[in-house]
Each structure stands twice: as C-alpha cells, then as structure tokens.
Amino acid sequence: MADNQPLPAGFAPDDELEEERTGRRTRNRLIILGAVVALAVAYMVYAAFPGNALYFVTVSEFKGGDEYQDGRVLRVSGKLVPESFQRQDNSTLARFQLVDKEGDGGGASLDASYVGVMPDLFFNPHSEIILEGSYASTGVFETDNILVKCPSKYQSLEEELPADYNTYNAGPAPQAS
What we know:
Elements: H1 14-48, E1 56-58, H2 59-64, E2 74-80, E3 86-87, E4 93-99, E5 109-115, E6 128-135, E7 141-149, H3 153-160, H4 165-168
Parallel strand pairs: 1-2, 5-7
Antiparallel strand pairs: 2-4, 2-6, 3-4, 4-5, 6-7
C-alpha cells in the first residue's frame, strides 16, 4: 500500500535522482576536459611565439641606436661585406662584417662573430643574412644563430648572365622551306 501513495511535492523517485546525478557528473567532466584542452592549446600558442617575436633591425638602425646595444638578444639584417669573412684553420670561429642590404646605411658596418657551421647560402652576394644574438662589450655582435633568406633565383640569374646570352642559346636559325 505504501507503493501506491503519491510522493510529497519536491520529492522525486530514486531512479530520477540517479539520472540527474549522472548527467551532472558527465557535464562536469566535459567542462573540466574542455578547460584542460583550452589551457593546453593556449600554452602551446604562448610557447611557440616568444622566439619568433624578435623583430630585426638593419645594420644602420643597430649602429645608430644605443638602445639596441645593451646586450639583449635581437636580430640584425644585412649582407656580407665581400672579403671580410675570416676563419682560422681547424676552427669553427668565424669573423665577418655585415652592411645594409640596400646599401643606404651611410657606410655603417657591423663586426660579427659566429661559432659553428655556416649555412650554404651565406656567401651568395644576393642573400640577405639575419644574425640573432647580442652585442658584446668588446664591440662585436656575438651571433647565436644565422638565418639566410634565399635570394630570388630569377633576379640573381638575370644579373649573372651575359648580355648576349640569348644570341648564343637561340639555336640554329629556322630554315625557309
């Protein structure tokens, strides 16, 4: 007889209470999982950008601004001064100079040093070189990493081809039939 009596207001059967509890647990788990995934993605984005957040300055900007010469890590862009590269035999220490790529730096050059293997395109006269490192108290930019921007292959080929290249490679003249 007790089973047929109506429940007082505000009371639900045990089955309904259990379903409500299970739904809350599932929803809470999904919220926690979503928060953990969002935090992980945010951390990966944050960790990926600090190294790339360094902007680069030209050689003339670097030489003209004392604020860049305080020992902090930054990037300097330029091109290799011809005949300035020096490396002693059996050594990985290299010394060289950079100037502005466009040549409008008023003759400003930057003495730099690097320990390691030089990139392949470092010696290409058309390459833009970006040095990452810091300015030492000795007056030399101590490079930790060298980035070489590949030159436009079409531009460098056009500049290096002789003026009469097409007359040599035009092939035999077409014959009249």
